[in-house]
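Field reference: sequence -> structure
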Amino acid sequence: MFDVIRQATLVALWFGLCAWALGRGGPPERLSGATHMIAAILTPALQYNIGRSGAELGVLAVDMIVVGIAIFAALRWDRWWTLYAAGFLVCQALTHVVRLYNLEIDQFYYASAAMFWSYASLHAMAFGVGQLEWERWKRWRISKTAGAGA
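Structure field:
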């Protein structure tokens, strides 16, 4: 029962943060939110090796595309969080590569490490959207105080 509640909470958090980035973010936040959302939908569809040894090659392919998009965003826009997100996603892709060459790693730890880096990237994006919201609020507050004094 606890596992179902935990999974539902994480999925709601994932899609909630992606929706926030899509709705309130700038171009890099929207790109990252859409990429995370599409990857979250594609990943379960491409998992074929659940509970067995070996790396998830379909998931690795999705993650490599996501890494490429994150690196593009980090090079294209001057937001601090894009660098962190790209770094986290590179670490996530490396967990798949390590699993390819070392089958001694337990499946649980492999999946947990991949999810950890993915959530780290998602939260970096959320901090970026939060920073945009803060800047909007400061501009709104300044305009309200400037308008009240006139």
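Note: DSSP finds five helices and no strands in the chain.
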